[in-house]
Design goal:
Layout (H helix, E strand, L loop, with lengths): L2 H7 L24 H11 L10 H41 L2 H9 L3 H37 L2 H17 L25 H10 L10 E9 L2 E7 L6 H6 L1 H7 L7 E5 L9 E7 L25 E5 L5 E4 L5 E5 L6 H13 L5 E6 L15 E4 L3 H27 L12 H4 L9 E6 L2 H4 L4 E4 L2 E4 H15 L5 E7 L9 H6 L2 E4 L5 H8 L20 E5 L13 E5 L4 H18 L4 H4 L9 H8 L14 H8 L2 H4 L2 E3 H8 L3 H10 L5 E6 L5 E8 H13 L2
Parallel strand pairs: 7-13, 7-14, 8-9, 8-10, 10-13
Antiparallel strand pairs: 1-2, 2-4, 3-4, 5-6, 5-16, 11-12, 14-15, 15-16, 17-19, 18-19
Helix pairs in contact: 3-6, 4-5, 7-9, 11-14
The structure holds adenosine-5'-triphosphate.
Length: about 700
């Protein structure tokens, strides 16, 4: 066989790999060391006492032990005294032949038995006297013969006997554990008191018991304890009836925090309680930590306040909106300014500030705001209307531009930190703060929206609703503060789309529900119960995650205190940061830009008004509008070739006529059926809409 024949006879095979194909995109089991396994078992085993499972618990157990030891002499003396009293009572009954006497009285034979009873009583007195005399003589003899020591020993044994007799009876702590689980004395959180409180508040039945999950521990300036409710009871009901429980525990409800323990370590019947020693809001308020921050990232939740346990509560602002409601002088403006402070310290954030309170509270923000006004006249309302129209147009533009960005920069139709800081994309996080929003919402100045007559208030309401709905994903943050959170002032459609809510003290539970949401009072959250003296304390119902709140629906928070000088310092810092970053624009930059208004587009977007009949439009614009129909709003770009073919027009003349109507052809990108992107000439729908509008507005 020559070489050529050999190479034809032997067929080359693909290499064979001796291996297993592993899909490493799936979560892989992690090898666990013995130490890890032991640790895990230790933590979950019911045999290991809870006190040995965590340092905090062990420390608390040690403290309790020391306290028990220190208290034991007093407890012993108490038991001996109780024993002595019990012994005396028993002796009195015996000496007065009480049982026999009562039986005779019962049978109405006391007179017959009187002599007999008296004799017996005398006899027992004599026995008592004889016993005392014998005991004294015996004691004397013992002292004389053996000294006082045996006497002391006898008395000690006697005191033990009395202490046993005087030990606490059934059900009292000290004899039998009231909760399942290990038990030692606690200072204030007596388990029996807790069980009784739950029973009195009708949160558990008379025969039901609580189970102790985590013994009472000192946390901050109060006591924390975690308990399991009986199987059929729900933690949500305890939260709902927090006030009854506070009353049963004899504390003010602001001192009691009840939370459901959720996630892996919890279940629907596990409740964590914290009882403050004193009113947690009576202490002086804390200054905002933002004062120490050189700058802030708007994408990070803003430090908003502290709860009663002194845990920091942060408020996320990007991708959401906030409604703050309260009666006057409770700290609304202060709360809204806290949210603003975080955004002011991020130079990449654009701010619109409308202060309808017309006071001095917001003035310092003028040096950083892109748009700023302070006043409560109709002209201010109309100016706000224009801002909002501009913002609606801005949001529409952002969505259109985001659609054109590639998936790596913009994976969803949502702005990201990178997009928001890219000056070329011009989509910064834009926050609009409106203080006393009821003023523009109630304004009755008539406005003409594309032929439809509305009041300025109605139109502002529609624009705000649209912005709250569509704005957050495009980086628009809406913060509205109102003194009048009633259903007439804040349209329900607007309330429904505002993500986060903060209710300071209001007049009644209805107003509280208007701010916090339907039925929130029945779930235990009612801001009308807050005390007038608790300025800056409110119920926060956040949207998304807030640090340290877990899955809590809402929480009582005391906002950080930011007096005017701190606020001014933050605004000054915000200005310096913007100057350095070159992002000082609009009002703060000294050139008040006139809002770019696309009234027709906005009216179409919010559905509040219809454009004028298209018959009024000149050709070929009318034909283009007719051909595009709904696509006018849904598409960004229409190639000239498509229009020329559909309308059967001469391309050069068509281009010239469109240009004369204010809509010259531009270059744009289209994707053909095979997925290839090509650059072609055509018209942006925005330009077409603007052409329609300018024609409609022409006299
Ligand atoms: N976190 C806080 N801690 C302590 N005091 C506060 C706090 N927040 C606000 N206050 C106090 O409450 C007062 C009223 O606050 P603010 O001006 O924000 O009220 P408001 O609800 O906006 O009032 P109005 O409805 O009149 O505009 C402030 O002067 C301030 O002293």
């Amino acid at each position: 066989m020559n070489d050529q024949q050999r190479s034809q006879a032997v067929e080359k095979a693909e290499p064979v790999y001796d291996a297993e194909l592993v899909d490493d995109t799936l979560p892989q089991p992690r090898p666990r060391s013995r130490w890890h396994r032991l640790r895990r078992w230790w933590l979950i085993s019911p045999r290991v006492p809870a006190t040995l499972k965590s340092k905090a618990q062990a420390r608390q157990a040690l403290k309790d032990l020391i306290v028990a030891l220190l208290k034991s002499p007093w407890r012993y003396v108490g038991a001996v005294v109780r024993g002595a009293i019990a012994g005396l009572r028993w002796w009195r009954q015996w000496v007065t032949v009480r049982e026999y006497r009562e039986a005779a009285e019962h049978q109405e034979k006391l007179a017959d038995k009187f002599i007999e009873i008296r004799a017996l009583t005398l006899f027992r007195w004599r026995v008592t006297g004889a016993v005392i005399a014998t005991a004294m003589l015996a004691g004397l003899a013992i002292v004389l013969i053996w000294g006082p020591r045996p006497l002391w020993l006898t008395m000690a044994a006697g005191s033990v006997g009395l202490a046993v007799l005087g030990r606490r009876k059934e059900g009292s702590p000290g004899r039998k554990p009231a909760l399942a689980g290990p038990r030692t004395l606690t200072w204030t959180m007596d388990p029996q008191v807790l069980v009784d409180a739950f029973r009195d508040a009708k949160l558990i039945g008379k025969d039901e018991m609580l189970r102790l999950v985590e013994r009472a521990t000192r946390v901050g300036d109060g006591w924390a304890v975690t308990v399991d409710l009986p199987a059929t009871r729900k933690a949500a009901d305890v939260i709902k009836n927090r006030e009854a429980l506070a009353s049963a525990l004899a504390v003010d409800e602001v001192q009691l925090i009840v939370e459901r323990v959720r996630g892996n370590g919890g279940h629907a019947g596990r409740v964590a309680l914290w009882v403050a020693d004193t009113d947690p809001y009576a202490s002086p308020p804390l200054r905002t930590p933002l004062l120490q921050a050189e700058r802030w990232d708007a994408w990070q939740p803003v430090p908003f306040g502290r709860d009663a346990r002194n845990r920091q509560i942060d408020l996320p602002l990007v991708w959401t909106s906030l409604l703050v409601g309260a009666i006057p002088r409770q700290g609304k403006t202060f709360a809204a300014r806290l949210a603003a402070a975080g955004l002011i310290l991020d130079p990449w954030t654009r701010l619109y500030i409308a202060d309808f309170k017309a006071g001095k509270d917001w003035d310092a923000a003028a040096q950083v705001a892109h748009r700023f006004m302070s006043g409560d006249e109709p002209e201010h309302v109309l100016a706000l209307k224009n801002w909002l129209v501009e913002l609606v147009g801005e949001v529409q533009g952002r969505y259109r531009r985001m659609r054109q960005l590639d998936d790596e920069i913009c994976p969803e139709s949502k702005i990201t930190p990178v997009i928001s800081r890219d000056p070329a994309l011009d989509m910064p996080v834009t926050a609009i703060f409106i203080d006393e929003v009821q003023v523009p919402l109630e304004d009755r100045t008539p406005v003409d929206v594309q032929g439809k007559k509305l009041t300025a208030g109605e139109y502002v309401g529609e624009l705000l609703t649209w912005l709250a709905k569509k704005g957050p994903a495009a980086g628009i943050v809406l913060v509205l503060a109102t003194q009048r959170p009633d259903s007439k002032t804040i349209p329900s459609g607007l309330r429904a789309v505002l993500g986060s809510r903060f209710a300071l003290r209001v007049m009644d539970w209805r107003d509280s529900n208007i701010v916090l949401g339907e039925q929130m009072n029945t779930r235990g959250y009612d801001s009308s119960r807050l005390l007038p003296s608790h300025k800056g304390v409110g119920i926060l119902r956040p949207d998304g995650e807030t640090r340290s709140s877990g899955d809590t629906l809402a929480m009582t928070v005391r906002t950080y205190y930011m007096p005017n000088e701190d606020w001014q310092a933050i605004c000054r810092r915000g200005r310096t940061l913007r100057e350095q970053a070159g992002t000082l624009t609009g009002h703060a930059g000294g050139h008040e830009a006139i809002p770019v208004l696309d009234h027709a587009g906005v009216a179409r977007a919010i559905g509040g008004a219809k454009p004028r009949p298209q018959a009024e439009l000149p050709e070929p614009l009318a034909a283009v509008v007719e051909y595009l129909g709904r696509d006018l709003d849904e598409r960004d770009f229409v190639p000239t070739a498509e229009l020329v073919e559909a309308l059967d027009v001469e391309p050069t003349a068509f281009g010239r006529q469109m240009g004369e109507l204010g809509c010259p052809p531009e270059r744009g990108r289209v994707t053909d059926d095979s997925g290839t992107v090509r650059q072609v000439r055509g018209y942006t729908t925005r330009a077409i809409r603007e052409a329609i509008e300018s024609w409609n507005e022409a006299p």
